[in-house]
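With this grant's support, we have settled on a layout for protein records. An illustrative entry appears below exactly as we store it:
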Amino acid sequence: MRAILIDPFEKSVSYVEVGSTEEAIAVIGCKGDVVAHPISRSDHLVIDREALELPDMRFWTIPDKFQGPVAGRALIRGNTPDATGIAPVGIDLAQVRGAVQFLDIRFAGWTPAKPRFEPLDVTSSRGEGSPVVARSVLSDSVDR
């Protein structure tokens, strides 16, 4: 089934084919637990629950959907009506490309209530919840 891969390492958004939940997990490089967040009536965002604290992690966001950065690769996939399987993605690739912003930040630890981030090229503290938006122009590559 067609899905959309958001890859902050390559700073790209592209179509990929996945046939099972296991393939979806492999595409995002998850070694632990995944979380699926509904982002539309028919689509879910699949992310690695433990990616935030992994070394050399990269981040991205969709400002209208998330309050803060999202860690690592993510997959947007369609959901079956009974929410037990994978269906083709319903959201348009161009819409996702227009919404995703890649962030040049790194995880710098925890404050009492939430994670703290710093710019990638600066070692001093930037403060909590202060992501630096580096670029919002996305790759034109489309894997079919």
User: Anything to note?
Assistant: Confidence is low (pLDDT under 50) at residues 122-144.
